[in-house]
Design goal:
- About 40% of the residues lie in helices and about 20% in strands.
- It is α/β, with parallel strands linked by helices and about 325 residues long.
- It has a single domain, classed as Ribokinase (UDP-N-acetylmuramoyl-L-alanine:D-glutamate ligase, 3-Layer(aba) Sandwich), CATH 3.40.1190.20.
- The strands form 3 sheets. Strands 5-1-10-11-12-13-14-15 form an 8-stranded mixed β-sheet, with helices on both faces. Strands 3-9-8-2-4 form a 5-stranded mixed β-sheet. A two-stranded parallel sheet has the order 6-7.
- The longest helix has 17 residues.
- The chain is globular, with a radius of gyration of 18 Å.
Length: about 325
């Protein structure tokens, strides 16, 4: 660890989140498609949805890998981020959030385009349905990624949304391997998995150290319904660690012949599930990279996931981090 510059580098789409509470009827009237998913839209469609909202919008940094990296930095990991930002005030604000978390942005690419935005529509049950315009992030090209972006990092965390661009995803994971990083992939959404199943299985055969999936993503990957423990076992059979997240019911972790059920941390009220899986991954990666056992890394993951759902947006408020770090620390010093 002393020989690396960064513990963790994340690669993904740096998106500014626009968050709004909406009734179930809003989805029925204005948002075709499955509840709880993510659909790419153009800027005009996103702007039209924003205009139909009655309440105020909250603004926070987003993007799956960025959410994970920024939370991991708050826990104490040395982090870096790779993605493509725009050239507008939203991009400048986004980079301010990154810097405030203590995350390195020297490998962030830039475009003379608007910054990407995601409208996260949160229903009373805390579920979020997302509509995303990638903006500048969409123009990140394979030619802009090289092993230099990962030099000196121990571990690379790749968000599944990159898999919508197979050539880019291939260049990212190849470059990370060339730089000597261990690798995790968060499958991100069932839409991603359906679009990239063959690529995902090909990478699993080549070797992926950690795979994060929720119930819907695991079902989409194996194209069947089953006990989620079985999905965890099957993913781990490729040689890495499998984390199958079950939301409020905890998670299954598998590695080689070990299968572990992660108990959930219960909360009195779920405000918003946006970014909860990303926070969960941050907690797990923190524990794992600090040398914690599978069970202890899973316990830290549960702490962060539970904390995240009690707040609007993916970012855990600054005032809560001392308590979160205090709860996590015993699991990495055990």
């Amino acid at each position: 660890m002393s020989h690396s510059t960064f513990d963790l580098v994340g690669v993904g789409n740096p998106i500014m989140d626009l968050l709004a509470h909406v009734p179930e009827s809003f989805l029925t009237q204005h948002v075709p498609g499955d509840k709880g998913g993510m659909v790419l839209v153009d800027d005009a469609d996103l702007a039209g949805l924003v205009r139909t909202l009655d309440g105020a919008l909250a603004i926070a940094p987003g993007g799956s890998a960025a959410n994970t990296i920024l939370s991991a930095a708050q826990l104490g990991l040395r982090t870096s981020y790779v993605g493509k930002v725009g050239s507008d005030p939203t991009a400048a604000q986004y980079l301010e959030f990154v810097a405030a978390a203590g995350t390195d942005s020297s490998h962030v690419k830039r475009a003379t385009l608007p910054h990407g935005r995601c409208l996260s529509l949160v229903t009373p049950d805390g579920q979020r349905t997302m509509r995303t315009h990638l903006g500048a992030a969409m123009t990140l090209s394979p030619a802009e990624i090289s092993p230099a972006d990962f030099q000196g990092a121990r571990h690379a965390h790749i968000e599944g949304y990159l898999l919508f661009n197979p050539a880019l995803a291939e260049q990212v994971i190849t470059s990370a391997r060339a730089a000597g990083c261990t690798i995790s992939i968060d499958l991100a959404s069932f839409e991603v998995v359906k679009a990239a199943r063959d690529w995902i299985f090909a990478q699993l055969r080549l070797g992926v150290d950690i795979v994060f999936a929720n119930e819907d993503e695991a079902s989409a990957l194996f194209d069947r319904t089953d006990d989620y423990a079985n999905f965890a076992r099957e993913l781990a059979a490729f040689g890495g660690i499998a984390a199958v997240k079950l939301g409020k019911d905890g998670a299954w972790l598998a590695q080689r012949d070990t299968l572990h059920r992660v108990a959930p941390v219960t909360v009195s009220r779920v405000v918003d599930t946006t970014g909860a899986g990303d926070a969960w991954a941050a907690g797990f990666l923190y524990g794992h990279l600090r040398g914690a056992s599978l069970a202890h890394a899973g316990a830290v993951a549960s702490i962060l996931g539970a904390e995240c759902v009690q707040h609007l947006g993916a970012a855990i408020p600054h005032v809560r981090w001392p308590q979160v770090r205090g709860a996590a620390l015993p699991h990495v010093s055990a």
